[in-house]
């Protein structure tokens, strides 16, 4: 799926460009994945789990751009990749009313309104495609993420105990959240 570029004004007055990823973004997107994984244990991957190559990332972007059921939007602040958000619409006829959403944001851009703006773009795209239910998972302790999700209308509907195991052996719950559109 494709999304038209859009410029938004952030809480600090700076501007942020929201747009579909481009092939020129590949190397920066890989660096972004590694950096976000290092900045927070609330994402599913550790930095060493980011084994994607430039070629595999290119193929991923190509697939997303031509897909009928996937959308990705990147957020650029002063030309720097600050965040991204992905939407996957379910394709089976019994599931077409559902979608999954995921988001990542560099720590230096937390609290600026980028997450809320990315979510609004995804909500709009999901509605356009007939989706009535959005779903996500959030790891125990991710208070910033939880606040964003609750603020945008998501509600916790389930818990997976011991879903995440950190390097130090600590287990964390994963909360399943749903938003009706």
Report what the structure shows.
The protein is α+β, with helices and mostly antiparallel strands and 181 residues long. The chain has a single domain, classed as 3-Layer(aba) Sandwich (Aminopeptidase). The chain is 28% helix and 35% strand. The protein is built from 4 helices and 8 strands; from the N terminus they run E-E-H-H-E-E-E-H-E-H-E-E. Strands 1-2-3-4-5-6-8-7 form an 8-stranded mixed beta sheet, with helices on both faces. Strand 1 and strand 2 (15-19) form a beta hairpin. Helix 1 packs across helix 2. The longest helix is centred in the C-terminal third of the chain and has 15 residues, at 114-128. The radius of gyration is 16 Å and the shape is globular. The model has no long low-confidence stretch (mean pLDDT 95).
Low-pLDDT segments, ≥5 res: none
Question: How is the biggest beta sheet arranged?
Answer: 8 strands, mixed
Q: Which strand order spans the largest sheet, edge to edge or round the barrel?
A: 1-2-3-4-5-6-8-7
**What's the Cα radius of gyration?**
16 Å
Specify the CATH architecture.
3-Layer(aba) Sandwich
Measured as a percent range, the helix fraction is 25-40%
Draw up the topology in text.
Layout: E1 6-9, E2 15-19, H1 26-39, H2 54-66, E3 70-77, E4 80-89, E5 98-105, H3 114-128, E6 133-139, H4 143-151, E7 155-165, E8 171-180
Parallel strand pairs: 5-6
Antiparallel strand pairs: 1-2, 2-3, 3-4, 4-5, 6-8, 7-8
């Amino acid at each position: 799926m494709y999304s038209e570029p859009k410029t938004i004004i952030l809480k600090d007055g700076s501007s942020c460009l929201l747009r579909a990823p481009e092939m020129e973004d590949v190397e920066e997107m890989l660096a972004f994945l590694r950096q976000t994984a290092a900045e927070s244990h609330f994402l599913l991957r550790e930095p060493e789990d980011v084994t994607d190559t430039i070629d595999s990332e290119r193929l991923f972007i190509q697939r997303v751009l031509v897909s009928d059921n996937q959308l990705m939007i990147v957020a650029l602040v002063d030309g720097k990749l600050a965040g991204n958000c992905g939407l996957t619409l379910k394709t089976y006829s019994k599931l077409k009313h559902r979608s999954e959403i995921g988001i990542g944001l560099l720590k230096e851009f937390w609290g600026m309104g980028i997450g809320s703006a990315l979510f609004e773009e995804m909500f709009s795209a999901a509605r356009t495609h007939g989706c009535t239910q959005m779903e996500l998972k959030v790891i125990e302790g991710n208070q910033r993420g939880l606040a964003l999700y609750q603020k945008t209308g998501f509600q916790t509907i389930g818990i997976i105990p011991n879903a995440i195991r950190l390097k130090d052996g600590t287990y964390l719950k994963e909360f399943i959240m749903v938003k009706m559109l």
